[in-house]
Design a protein that fits this description.
- Helices cover 33% and strands 19% of the residues.
- It is built from 12 helices and 18 strands.
- The strands form 4 sheets. Strands 10, 11, 12, 13, 14, 15, 16 and 18 form an 8-stranded antiparallel sheet that branches. The chain has a 4-stranded parallel sheet with strand order 3-2-4-5, with helices on one face. A 4-stranded antiparallel sheet has the order 6-9-7-8, with helices on both faces.
- The radius of gyration is 24 Å and the shape is globular.
Length: 436
């Protein structure tokens, strides 16, 4: 019987995507052909595929690059809602944290408009001199964003206005603007970090080593006359490249390792390490915040683009999470980095998948074993570093390690102490249930 050719498909014609598929010897599907094995799809295509009315069901020979309801993390309003709920749950029951650090608020104060208009007005009047930033909940690349410092600027979002009572094509979030960002060379910047999730239950998270800082072209100030200047306030490359001072050689980007070296030289090694540890925890907690609501389809993986802002006190803030971080390349180093990113993603989620599989294979990860069972998928084994991806969090290994530590501790306890420990744990669990 002829072997099964591995077929790929994409609706995003990006060179870094197609080149990576071709280098692996996989065969491209024809237009309209749904007999694909690996699909690098847009979020709109994923929505159609997982629409219950489509009747489409993925099989074990297929992988796709988004989870069905990824928007629980990548829509700005839903991300804020889920993070707020998670932080409340952690405050009530710290055992949820496991071995991770207790989180501090890592998302700026945010409201949904027009739904939260009245609550926002109360907050605004408590801090009348503060600046706020308005963003559409489901748009990217800096589109539709503006900064306000007066209620009159958003009067049409009032629930009493005729506009607010009309069906909305898109909602907005309004967040407290971080007015004291960390500046380098007098310019504002944020971090773009790539985070790969291969499973939500158990949670398996990889962090890419080649993130970068994105700089504004103009020097920062928060003067009222410059409140509408996007080249001062918005770091999105899609906006900054329209500035006449944009440098097409480096694209206004700085490798995260260079940023780290700069911070170590200015603020010291300890402060720099603490900042990046807090960024790691921010990522983990944001994913834990949506872990219970994401549909953990085993045929899915996702590479998120995290946008993190650092303030002048070296505190990180999560600005947003992108479901489809840009794969456009504006510089040669950009092309090399993003091509390597795609290569390493496939090395994690589709390791050792050849150009073809033996006839009768029912899994991408190998033919049936002699007992009729499929070969193990890479998602059922412990996480390990791949290429430039390091393991940020492996929930299964964390749980196993915690149990091992508990057993080791118990060996050194007397019978009475072990009994007391069990009773205390049961009482804590009972108290937690009573609270719920």
């Amino acid at each position: 019987m002829p072997p099964i050719r591995i077929k790929w498909k994409t609706d995003l014609e990006k060179g870094v995507v197609t080149t990576n598929f071709e280098r692996r010897g996989w065969q491209r599907c024809n237009d309209g052909d749904n007999d694909w094995n690996i699909y690098w799809a847009s979020v709109n295509t994923v929505r159609q595929i997982f629409n219950p009315e489509s009747g489409y069901r993925l099989n074990d020979m297929q992988l796709i690059n988004h989870f069905p309801n990824h928007f629980e993390l990548t829509r700005k309003d839903l991300m804020v809602k889920n993070v707020k709920r998670y932080l409340k749950e952690v405050a009530r029951d710290p055992s949820i944290l496991g071995r991770t650090h207790s989180p501090q608020d890592f998302v700026p104060v945010t409201y949904l408009l027009p739904a939260d208009y009245s609550i926002f007005v109360e907050e605004f009047r408590r801090n009348p001199n503060a600046m706020w930033i308005m963003k559409p909940t489901a748009r990217s690349q800096g589109k539709g964003i503006f900064i306000i410092n007066k209620l009159a600027q958003i009067k049409k979002w009032s629930q009493q206005s005729r506009w607010a009572q009309m069906p909305l094509k898109e909602a907005y979030v309004i967040s407290r603007y971080v007015e004291d960002p960390l500046l380098i060379g007098g310019k504002k910047f944020d971090l773009r970090l790539y985070v790969l999730v291969s499973s939500y239950r158990p949670l398996r998270v990889y962090l890419y080593a080649h993130g970068f800082a994105r700089f504004c072209n103009s020097k920062y100030n928060n003067d009222l006359e410059d409140i509408d200047n996007p080249f001062i306030h918005l770091t999105n490359v899609a906006i900054q490249k329209k500035n006449e001072e944009y440098n097409s050689t480096h694209g206004g980007k700085w490798h995260v390792q260079n940023l780290r070296l700069y911070l170590e030289s200015v603020y010291g090694l300890q402060a720099s390490n603490r900042l990046f540890s807090e960024i790691d925890q921010l990522i983990i907690h944001s994913l834990k915040a949506v872990q219970g609501v994401i549909n953990n389809d085993k045929h899915c993986f996702e590479c998120y683009g995290y946008d993190v802002l650092i303030d002048s006190k070296l505190r990180p803030w999560l600005i947003e999470v992108n479901a489809s971080p840009s794969l456009s390349t504006t510089t040669e180093s950009d092309r090399i980095m993003k091509s390597a990113l795609l290569r390493d993603i496939f090395a994690v989620v589709a390791p050792h998948v050849p150009s073809s599989l033996p006839e009768g294979s029912r899994s991408l990860f190998g033919q049936s074993n002699s007992d009729g069972k499929q070969a193990a998928s890479p998602f059922s084994t412990p996480c390990y570093p791949v290429g430039s991806f390091c393991v940020l969090y492996d929930e299964a290994m964390e749980a196993e390690s915690a149990q091992r530590n508990d057993r080791d501790e118990d060996k050194n306890l007397s019978y009475g102490s072990r009994l007391k420990k069990v009773v205390s744990k049961q009482q804590a669990q009972a108290n937690g249930k009573a609270e719920w």
